[in-house]
Every structure is written in structure tokens, then in C-alpha cells.
């Protein structure tokens, strides 16, 4: 299974993680969300519902190219720069495309993204 993000005329693919949060995220797809920049490190968007964190670690490190869930706020976080360890951060997957982080980092202002599953 592959996750496809369509943003700014580009299709980016990601491989989902194997955990409760990732399974809940996949069950929400397809989604169209608005990405906003957060501190020059990540793009964030509100999700329509919270994801399960059962069995997930209490936190992790966000690396450029990671799809994450920030449990305290219930939002999607897509990292385009490396970030240190954060409590409440849960991995949903990672981009397959080497240039995905650069594409996301170059987005200017709020940007619509469509996220779907490709079998």
C-alpha cells in the first residue's frame, strides 16, 4: 500500500508506518486538507478526527520526509526539515520521493493537499 499526496501539481508517494495511528490515518483517506507552515520546519493540517496512539511510543524524532501525527493537538505534521525528539509525535509514514521535503519546503502560504491511498 502507498500513500499519495497531491500538492502544487505534484504527486508525492509515501510508505505508511505499521501502527495504530497509521491504520487510523489510512482509514480517513481520501482527504483534502490545507497545509500551513509551522516554524519553518513542517507543514501542518488539522485532521477530521483524532488517531489512536495505542501501542505507539510516547514520542519520536521527526526527520525531513516524515509524515507524523502530533497527538497533543490531533494534527498531521509533514516534516521538510529535521526536528529533534518530541513527546506526542507519532510516525505515520515516510516519503518515497527523495525531493519530497524540498517540494514541501518550497510551498508558500496555505496550500491545499489531497491525500489518498494507492494500492
UniProtKB/TrEMBL annotation:
- Sorted alphabetically, which InterPro entries does this protein's record hold? Cyclophilin-like (IPR041183), Cyclophilin-like_dom_sf (IPR029000)
Q: Can you give the residue ranges of the Cyclophilin-like domain?
A: 5-116
Question: One Pfam match, by short name?
Answer: Cyclophil_like2
Which domain of life does the UniProt lineage start with?
Bacteria
Q: What is this protein called?
A: Cyclophilin-like fold protein
Which species is this UniProt entry from?
Isoptericola haloaureus
Amino acid at each position: 500500500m502507498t500513500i499519495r499526496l497531491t500538492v502544487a501539481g505534484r504527486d508525492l508517494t509515501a510508505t505508511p508506518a505499521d501502527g495504530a495511528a497509521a491504520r487510523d490515518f489510512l482509514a480517513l483517506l481520501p482527504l483534502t486538507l490545507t497545509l500551513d507552515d509551522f516554524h519553518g520546519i513542517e507543514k501542518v493540517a488539522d485532521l477530521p478526527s483524532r488517531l489512536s496512539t495505542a501501542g505507539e511510543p510516547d514520542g519520536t524524532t521527526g526527520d525531513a520526509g516524515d509524515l507524523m501525527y502530533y497527538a497533543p493537538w490531533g494534527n498531521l505534521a509533514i516534516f521538510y526539515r529535521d526536528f529533534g525528539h518530541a513527546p506526542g509525535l507519532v510516525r505515520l509514514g515516510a516519503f518515497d520521493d527523495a525531493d519530497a521535503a524540498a517540494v514541501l519546503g518550497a510551498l508558500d502560504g496555505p496550500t491545499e493537499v489531497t491525500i489518498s491511498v494507492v494500492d
